[in-house]
Design a protein that fits this description.
The complex is a heterodimer. Chain A is built from 16 helices and 33 strands. Chain A is α+β, with helices and mostly antiparallel strands. Chain A folds into four domains: 103 residues; 227 residues, no CATH class; 162 residues, no CATH class; 198 residues, no CATH class. In chain A, the strands form twelve sheets. A four-stranded antiparallel beta sheet of chain A has the order 18-17-21-22. A four-stranded antiparallel beta sheet of chain A has the order 27-26-24-31, with no helix packed on it. Chain A has a three-stranded antiparallel beta sheet with strand order 5-6-7. By secondary structure, chain B is α+β, with helices and mostly antiparallel strands. In chain B, the strands form six sheets. In chain B, strands 7, 9, 11, 12, 13, 16, 17 and 20 form an eight-stranded antiparallel beta sheet that branches. A three-stranded antiparallel beta sheet of chain B has the order 8-19-18, with no helix packed on it. In chain B, helix 3 packs antiparallel against helix 5 and helix 5 packs antiparallel against helix 6. The radius of gyration of chain B is 45 Å and the shape is rod-shaped. Classes of the chains: A alpha+beta, B alpha+beta. The interface between A and B is large, with 82 and 78 residues.
Chain lengths: 777, 473
Amino acid sequence: MATLGLDIGLRGLRAAQTALDTVGHNISNANTPGYTRQRVDLDTSHPTRMRGLLQGTGVETDGIRRITDALLNKRIRSQVSVYQGLDVQLQGMSRIEDMLSEPGGNGLGALFDGFFSSVAGLSANPGDSVLRNSMVQSASSMTDEFQHLSTEISDARSQNLQELQYRTGEVNRLANSILNLNQEIAQAEASQVPANDLRDRREQELRSLSEQVDVSFTEQGNGAILVSVSGRVLVGSQRVHELSVESNPQGEPELRIDGSNVPVQVSGGQVGGLLRFRQEFLPTLEAKLDKLARNMILEVNRAHSTGTPESGGFTLLSGTQPVAGANTNERLAQLVRSAGLPFDVQEGRLYVNMTNAATGEVRVDSFAIDPNNMTVQGLLQSLNGVEHMNAGLDSLGRLNLTADSGYRFDFSARLDSNPNDYSTLGGGRATIGTAAHGPYGLSNGGTLSLQGPLGSSTVTFQSSDFADIQNASAQEIADVINSDAGMNSSGLRAVAVGDRLVLQSQNEGSSESIAVMGGSMLSALGLSAGTLAGGNDNSVQVEAFGRYTGSENRTLYYEPVGDGVIGTTPGLQIRVVSADGSPVAVLDVGEGYVPGTRLSVGEGVEVSFGYGELSGSTGETFKQDWIADSDSSDVLVAFGVNSFFDGDSAGTIEVSQALQSDPNRISYSGSGASGDNGALRRILTLQQASVDGLGASLGDYYGQVVGDVGFRISTTQSATAVAESLVQSLDARREEVSGVNVDEELVNMVRFEQAYTASARYIQTVQQLNDTILSII
Amino acid sequence: MSLRPTQSSNYDLVAAGIKRNLLALVRAQEQVSSGQRILRPSDDAVGTSRGMSLTRQRANVDAHLSSVTSIQPVLATSTTELENASGLLTEARALVLQAMNGTLSDTDRATVADQLDQIAESLFAIGNTKFGDRYLFAGSETSKPPFVDQRRGVEGYVQYQGDTNQQQVAIGRDSTVDINLPGNQVFGGDQYRATAYTGQTGIANGDDANYGKGYMRLFLRTDTVTGANVGGLAMGTAGGTSILGSHVLQVNGADGTAQLGTGPTKLIPTPPPANFTLVDEDGSVAVLDFSGWTGGFVTTTLVGEGSISTDGTTYNPFDRNSTNIQVTDPSTGNMLHVDGTGVHRAGSELVVFQGATNVFDTIRGIASDLRSGDSLGASSQTTNLNLRLDELTQGQDRLLNSLGKLGARYERLNSSETRLRDLSTQLAGLKSEVMDVDLASAVLELQQAEQTLQLTQATGARLMQQSLLNYLG
């Protein structure tokens, strides 16, 4: 009896002691992060049979329990991963946002404006060299900013990589820590007692790990846990499978576990966030800035390459974009893909103006460009085919153009002021033009017999003289006739007027005459036997004035209707037709027309005719090119000929070196005249005009890019705020369950203090009972 | 609302509340101190895009505005110069009218001619006015002087080497303004209407059309005369014979007179001279040798053939029966087709390509005419002056016309300037609406945030102080 009482009292004391210790432990750890409050489980001790009754034997402590909610912890960890992942992206994006310096006045937008303002200033006074300098300076400021943005993005990328490596190190450190804790917990719990504080610590490490990567774990029987990332084991039962950052074949970083080749897909935590930032945000922004820079280069160069500088033309031009390996066999359509040129060559036409520096006379030549069939070599050949032009590739693969001495060239869309090349209309030479337009369907062995002033001759056409004899061009046929000895000695020659063949006597004067005798190719050429033409003592002076205001390139032919003398013969007219024969205008040049008077043909073009004789019956004609876009193939831009901007991306855009060293070389004129500002006006329209490649104007596209960054950031901000508040509320919930309420503990402290006092008092009472019994003995 | 608050969760709650309110206060302060509602794109993405678009538009408007203001002085200068030119032309005209008054002496005429030459010089200088480094009246070829002075043949010849294209400047997205006038349209005409001749020699337009500009001279000369060898008569050896075509000669043996055509009858002196000058009613002269005259009645038709020249040096014979003689001036390229059938005397003709002359050539031509008189006599000189005066009047009209055009352009530029300035202000206002902060409401927000913060701090403090320890012994 006595021992039982003492036992009971002792148990009571011990239980109260343990409970008080636990209260003390809780209070001390009220602010320890990750601490879960502990409670002592009290239970009655096993009853004993005594005096025919089951007598209770007091209290015993079953164990000290952590009050924790495993499911809640899991939710917290996954939400922490989400939050940290968003937060790190937000930080990265905010740094980029600051770098843009928009919408304040210090970003790229203000420099755009400055550039266009300088273009407008120069356009009002294109001869001013201070303004020219200013334009180059403003352009350079703008390209500097482009490069700066590009560099900042590269820097962000390398910073991102450093962060990744650092965080991966953290992950490995935490994993090792968890491994150690696993071992300690396994050891401690081998004796069936939960290692509460160790588990708390491990929980904290797991939370820290979740901040870095999104993890999941499985509990092993011995209290250890296996931690895995995206299905791959990080913390194993024996060791840690370390995470590392490696480069993939594209040079981008990838996460690998344990050195295996299969990358780990991390989507949450700071590591996941850093990867998302690097793989989505940065490339998207960089691509957009590059696209903006490219389109600026393309559009400005289109205007500048077809402009002329103050000197009116060039004697030497070197392209800035080299063809890789100076390979002249590349087709023009492949240059972007295989030869490293930044811009595509399209199907179109290139017009080349060659000016005789002494006389000021200008010849306008053009050739078609079909990038699918033309090689670089073919382009060089076509360029060399222009009289007085010499074209080649230098050792680096850059296009080199030079003019013969005494000549200069340019690519402007000028109206040829003397379109009657070779005087094939009303000229001094006897002239017969074909009624048909080329290409002509000739056959091998076909003949043409002509009578010239000095004799007659027959020329035979061989397949070997043509690329395709059934589609013979006027130029090819003219070349055959001009190289024929018989034709030469008869005093005959031929020229190509656009795609029409025209036969002429070699000399001028009313005593010259030529005639068509016969030949098997007459109908193919559109000639009739017996057509006779005589020369004139006067040559009609044809002059063209004005500027073509249309938007499409056109070729027109001027054909007299009937025969007559300009200004004299009643009803004499000249018909103006398109290449396909559709009528454009009819000009009255008969009686009542004062020779030299300008006649309006249409769309800003005027032509005047001097005195002379016209012969429509013999097919006299001349052609006139109305040029809206003198390089519709963009071949000049592709090769960097006469470029304003060089480069092809935000990181490489710069003002051409030639212009930086001499701003007076700016090609501001659109027509070749020194007071014209057409090229500048065209550049100025870019400020507001919609650009094909962007679907908006340059400025608006930039505004969209910045707006997009802002939008992404603000959505990320909202998401981060939501995630943060969710973490906070989950943490609060955890506090509810596992947190220490000091007041509660104080109450418990009073309770157990009293219990201890009561047990002590009971022991005292039992002691007194024992003494009473002993005093009886 | 948690069911089991702990001290820890309370502290977190208070801290979070303070942080949130402090953030709002900081934001409000940022807006007020910068005046901007949108400080970074993430503050309002749509607003940022719109604000930036407005900024770009405004910059575009400002760029065009600066073009307009750069151009105004150019137009102003052009206008001033043309006004000066107009004054000079008026002066020239008055001088010409004065000179055409027949009472002036030769010295006076020479003085007037000098004055006119000076006026032509001044006008020429105006034509080649430069503004900065570009010539104002050269079309779009502004780097070389539009007018060059070249003496060609006998007439002066100022050539225009500019072009007819206008320099354009963009004053709006789709609108441009021409800023100059091509010199050949201001100081000269380039649309010639018809050819005029003084007409004293009887030459006239032929069948085919003419092609040329400015002024030209034709010199007709008598080479041979046939039909004189009748009745002992012959052509005299002295020079001065200027008949062309058929002229009837009548010698009256009775009263010893001779008459050429219907001209004055002259008494043949005795002894009959070897060189006797007779004049026809049109002023043409025949020098005859009467020394072999038999003294009888003679009636014969004298036919003169001659040649034609454009410079007074190189002569080519012409066919008096042709209605379509082609005469080309090799130094200018001017080409005439003349009718020779009406030619009846030699002399020099002034040919005017009406509508295609310039004021410099006109005025200099008048001065030169005044100095040299005219071999054809006073009436011919009057005809010359009248032709030139006609051209001068045309020139004045063209100049005034050009002034009018400039005036209209100036007006257009001014109204463009106003329009652009208004547009710029409007865009600035729109941008301000999007980007700037409404100070009143921002300050209000600031005060609210401050208040909320203070309340949060006060209540937080109270909450954190609650503890059982305050009451335990």
